[in-house]
């Protein structure tokens, strides 16, 4: 081996043996606004004293990044269990970490079992770019995790790459809309058209849509009118360092409809169109949003919901 090669080998060894930085987690809820419950908590990496994720990840060497990523998921499960999480737990995967499930999965399952965390409460978040690099390989890898009951979410959907074409090749259990699509959506027609198409595709494919990064009431109202029920963002709760923060639950359109529909049904009024308009007027909804009618499918579900509750 030449002297130059020995230096490289030594360097690699030193990086591999390097200690991983101290880290912990913040948890941010994903909220079901219709059921008024926490659907899941996403584990977000932080420093030991709540330093931002970028600072922690920036201090991890390239050679130890995947080892760190594996350790992080195991630690997140333990912390969530200790904090008493009863809902699902969303765990982020760094790009390429989903590969080699045969060596990664046992550790994950062992951690889940040790902390009494059923595997069907674990949701693996991967980014859109990761999926489209190689559909076939990705599907093969992810199906190993799915075979153990875990679910998969596509993170930051719409941030670029292939958009709806991705869903033709791979159907996740959940899809998280990128916050760039969400910011100020109530006043952005082209973005609204794109998001409506994504939401409709997800409804047809049986995929849960999560509007991520919602910060204002106007953003929430727009998605609520479109029938989206799963949300994450500062409007509901900020991430809580080593805690499971309780979210804010705004009053949703389905809740307004339900109460209005019940009143109307008791009066013998069986015309749903009048329920909607009456409720919208009572709620002070601007007339511009009245043009935003629910799909027949959503309405049928909500009508059924109103009659059975
Ligand atoms: Ca994420």
Short description:
The chain is an alpha/beta fold. The protein is built from 13 helices and nine strands. It has an eight-stranded mixed barrel with strand order 1-2-3-4-5-6-7-8.
> What CATH first level of the largest domain would be assigned?
Alpha Beta
Overall structural domain count: 2
**Ions, cofactors, ligands: which are bound?**
calcium ion
Computed over alpha carbons, the radius of gyration is 22 Å
Helix content: 40-55%
- Beta-strand residue percentage: 15-25%
CATH fold name of the largest domain, please?
TIM Barrel
Q: Indicate the low-confidence ranges by residue numbers.
A: 1-17, 285-307
Q: Average pLDDT across residues?
A: 79
Shape: globular
**How far is it from the N-terminal to the C-terminal residue, by CA?**
76 Å
Question: What characterizes the major β-sheet?
Answer: 8 strands, mixed, barrel
Find the CATH superfamily of the largest domain. EAL domain
What's the tally of helices?
13
Order of helices and strands: HEEHHEHEHHEHEHHEHEEHHH
């Amino acid at each position: 081996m030449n002297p130059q090669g020995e230096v490289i080998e030594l360097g690699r060894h030193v990086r591999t043996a390097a200690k991983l930085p101290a880290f912990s987690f913040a948890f941010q809820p994903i909220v079901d606004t219709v059921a008024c419950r926490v659907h899941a908590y996403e584990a977000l990496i932080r420093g030991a004293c709540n330093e931002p994720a970028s600072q922690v990840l920036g201090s991890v060497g390239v050679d130890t990044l995947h080892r760190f990523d594996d350790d992080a998921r195991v630690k997140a499960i333990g912390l969530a269990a200790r904090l008493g999480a009863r809902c699902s737990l969303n765990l982020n995967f760094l790009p390429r970490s989903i590969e080699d499930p045969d060596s990664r999965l046992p550790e994950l399952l062992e951690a889940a079992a040790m902390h009494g965390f059923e595997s069907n409460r674990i949701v693996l978040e991967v980014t859109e770019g990761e999926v489209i690099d190689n559909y076939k390989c990705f599907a093969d890898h992810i199906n190993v995790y799915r075979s153990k009951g875990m679910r998969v979410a596509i993170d930051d959907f719409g941030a670029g790459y292939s958009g709806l074409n991705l869903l033709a090749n791979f159907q996740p259990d959940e899809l998280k809309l990128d916050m760039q699509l969400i910011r100020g959506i109530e006043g952005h027609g082209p973005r609204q058209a794109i998001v409506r198409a994504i939401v409709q595709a997800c409804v047809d494919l049986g995929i849960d849509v999560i509007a991520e990064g919602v910060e204002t009431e106007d953003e929430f109202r727009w998605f609520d009118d479109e029938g989206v029920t799963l949300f994450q963002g500062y409007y509901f709760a900020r991430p809580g360092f080593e805690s499971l923060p309780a979210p804010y639950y705004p009053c949703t359109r389905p809740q307004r409809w339900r109460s209005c529909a019940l009143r109307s049904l008791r009066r013998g009024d069986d015309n749903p169109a009048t329920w909607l308009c009456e409720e919208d007027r009572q709620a002070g909804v601007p007339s511009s949003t009245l043009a935003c009618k629910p799909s027949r499918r959503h309405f049928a579900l909500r009508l059924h919901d109103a009659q059975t509750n």
